[in-house]
User: What shape does this take?
Amino acid sequence: MKITRRAALKSSALTATALALRSSSLFSQASASVDAHIDILPDEPIGIISPEIYSHFIEHLGGVIYDGVWVGPNSKIPNTNGIRQSFIDTMRAVQAPVLRWPGGCFADSYDWRDGLGPADKRPARSGFWDQQEPNAYGLHEFMHTCRAIGCKPYLAADMRSLPARDFYQEIEYCNAPAGLVRSNSAAPATPNALAAQRAANGDVEPFNVDLWGVGNESWGCGGNLVPEEYAAMFRRFTAWTPSYSRTPLRFVAVGPNGDDVDWTRRLFKSLYSNSERRHLFGLSVHYYTSGSPTEFAGGDALKFSAGEYYDLLTRGSIMERVVTDHWAAIGNTQEPGQPQVKLVVDEWGAWYGKHTELAPEYNFSQQSTMRDALLTGITLDIFQRHADKVAVANLAQAINCIHSLMLAQEDKFTVTPAFHVFRMYLPHRGSQAVRAQFSAPAIPNPLADTPIPVGGNSYIGSLDAVKLLAGLSGSASISPTNPKLLTLTVVNPHLDQPIAAEIAVARAAIASSVATVLAEPDVHAHNDFAHPDAVHPSPAGTAAPVSGRLTHSFPPASVTTLQLTLA
Ligand code: AHR
Assistant: This one.
C-alpha cells in the first residue's frame, strides 16, 4: 500500500491545476525558493461565514448520550444536573453554536413525550440501533445541556413513526409561552396546555427552538422513501405549525445521501410543484468519509498506510463537490417569494470500522488521529470557501462516536485532535470569507482505482474515484471588526514534506503575522485516556514579511492558523 511520495510529487508538479493557478497569480515573478503560493483576494468576497457551520450532533447511540453526555445527577463524575461537566466545558471551549438531537436514525422512531416528566415514571423502550432506551435523557435534559453550553438546540423531528400533529405539538410544547396566551380570536386568553405541561415539568420559560429537521435520511432509515414521497410528507408536516418562536422557524428538508443529486433535483421539483414553501430554510446533506477505499464505514482509525492516509483525505475533499453539486441542484433563483434554501451539512466526518471502540456497548465509538485533524481542517475550509452556500454544519458526533471531539468512559476523558482544529478555526466565525488562491502541486491519490463508497447507516452508494488531493488547501477571511486583520487557515497533507509558501494579499501589504500549528512527527498520533494531551497545538514562529509578503513553512501533515495584520 506504500507509495513513493517523491515520484508522486514529481508527476503532480505537472498538473494543469497548479500551472493554471500559478500563471494567474500575484506571483508572476515568483521566487524559486518556495514550493507554493497563496494569493488572498480581499476584493473577492464570498459571504459571511455562518458561526453555525461549527456545530455538533449527539444521538441516542452506543455511548454518546449515556455515559458520554448524561452521567446522571447522582454520579461521582463531575456533572451539572446530570450532564457530564467535561462535555459542557469542551463544548464551551469550541463555542459550540448549535447542538443537534436526538438523531440521526434514532429520531425517526422516537416519541418526544417518552422523555418527559419524573425520571422514574418514564417508559423504557426499544430504540433504533437495537438498544433499550431508558428515556432518562429527554427534551428537558437536552435543553438544559444547550443552556449549560450556551448553544442553540436543533431538533430532528420523528416523521416516519409519528403523525404531523406530534410535530406541531412538539413545536408548541417547546415554544408556547406559559401563562395566559392571547390569540387571534375573540375567545378569552387562556393558558396553553402544552406550555403548562412544560412548566410543570420544570421549565416555565419557552425553549424557543427555531431550527427543526423534518425527518432524517428519509431515503434510508427515515422511511425508505423516494424524493416525491418525501416532498409530499414535508409539505403536509409543514403546512401549518404554531408560530410561537421569537425568531422565525427554520425547517430543514431531508437531503441526499452523499452526492446523490438526483434526490435533490427531484425533491425540489416536487416541493416547488406547490407554491407554498413554509419556513423552508435548508437542505440537509450527509457526507461521511469511509476509512476504507472499498467499503463504507471500514478501515482502521489507528492503523493505516500512507496510501490509505492520502486516499481518505482525497475522498474527504470531495465535500467541495458535494456542496457545489447540491447547491446547483437546488436551483435557487432570485424570483420573488422563493426562499434562498441553504445547505445544512448536518452529518459529516470520517467513519471507520470496528477496531478502536471504547467497549462493545459504545457502538461506533472510534479513535481519532492527526489524519482526522487534517480532514477536519480540509472540511471546515471547504465550508468557509462556500460561506454563501453552507449555513449550518454538524460534525457527527460530538462524543464517543464517529468523528468525535471527545472520548469519555466513566471517569476517563480526553479530547481528540479534531477538538483542537475546531478551536484553531474560531477566528473565522462571523468573518467575511474572501477568495484565496492556493497554487501548489497536487498529490496523486495512490488508491484512486475504485469508486468511492458513500453512505449513511442505511444506504450505500458510490462516487467516481478521485485522483488528486490538493497539495495545500485552506481558506481566508477578514475580521468583522477590523478590516486589517485576516485569518488564513492552511492544511499541508504531505506526509513528510514541509511546504514553503509565499503569501500575498492583493493590493495590501502584510505587516505582521502570528501562527498556531497542529503537527506531529507521526500522523498516527492521537490522544487517549492515559495521554490526553499527546496531541495539542503550539505557537509557531513566523518570518518577518518582505515587501509586504510573508513566506511561511507549513510542516508535514499539519493544520495551521495564521493571523495576518495588514499595514
Ligand atoms: O451518525 C450515525 C448515523 O449515520 C445517523 O444516525 C444517521 O443519520 C446516519 O446514517
User: Anything to note?
Assistant: Confidence is low (pLDDT under 50) at residues 1-30. The longest helix spans residues 370-385. Residues 309 and 371 are 7 Å apart (CA to CA). The first strand starts at residue 36 and ends at 48.
